[in-house]
Specification:
Layout: H1 8-19, H2 32-37, H3 43-49, E1 55-70, E2 76-84, E3 87-93, H4 95-101, E4 110-120, E5 123-133, H5 134-137, E6 146-150, H6 156-169, E7 177-186, E8 189-200, H7 203-210, E9 215-220
Parallel strand pairs: 3-5, 6-7
Antiparallel strand pairs: 1-2, 1-4, 2-3, 4-5, 6-9, 7-8
């Protein structure tokens, strides 16, 4: 009997707990297509754009830590350390935003923040104006379809098993559902075979399929 697939997010969480950083990837890797469709910037993109001056934009991150302090007036604020696939950064969160979103800023949480960006030498200072849990932020950013790319047919049985689980257990609103195809080469031709007509095209579904040995990539289309 095959052991259950170890999802990328679970593997990354174990890596971070053991060595303090992510080794085999980043928790936001599978969210990048949806984040791009929502116009969310990476740290690298923000750092480059901020050279032209202050700006307000959105950035995604996985929370590493939250350090709360008290101002001279007695109000609480926090320095929240986060990361995205392009680097580590810190966001200052003042009391009004902190009071509303403290529960969303726990270590390990994936979030999208609206931030005020101020250039500071070759770095940037970020002030949080708003916080959204990741799944809420990308709920309406579904792809039209997913293509599961394989080099040969060895992973097909595991893909079929994963697809059965996705169809039975994973939930998604109509706007986040669509077809899934299997993509492979037949000589010089690239062939797509539809394996599901109406499946959840969510990040957990993508993660489950990507974890299968022999799957080369998951393409959002």
């Amino acid at each position: 009997m095959n052991a259950p697939l170890w999802l990328p997010t679970e593997k990354l969480a174990e890596e971070h707990a053991a060595i303090g950083f992510y080794l085999s990837g980043h928790p936001l890797d599978d969210y990048q297509p949806a984040l791009r469709r929502k116009g969310v910037s990476t740290l690298a993109e923000i750092s480059a754009a901020a050279q032209d001056g202050a700006m307000v934009t959105s950035i995604a991150g996985t929370v590493s830590s939250r350090q709360e302090k008290k101002s001279a007036k007695g109000t609480r604020y926090a320095f929240v350390a986060l990361s995205d696939p392009t680097g580590l950064y810190e966001v200052t969160v003042f009391s009004d935003t902190l009071d509303k979103h403290r529960q969303d800023l726990e270590p390990g949480a994936n979030v999208v923040l609206q931030v005020q960006v101020e250039p500071s030498g070759d770095q940037v200072k970020l002030l949080a104006r708003g916080v959204q849990p990741m799944e809420s932020a990308i709920a309406d950013a579904g792809a039209d379809r997913l293509a599961v790319t394989i080099a040969d047919f060895h992973p097909v049985p595991e893909i079929a098993a994963a697809l059965s689980r996705i169809l039975a257990e994973f939930k998604a609103p109509p706007r986040a559902r669509g077809p899934i195809s299997l993509r492979f080469r037949d000589g010089d031709a690239l062939v797509d075979v539809e394996i599901a007509k109406d499946a959840p095209l969510t990040t957990p579904a993508r993660q489950l399929l990507r974890a299968i040995p022999g799957v080369l990539e998951i393409v959002d289309e």
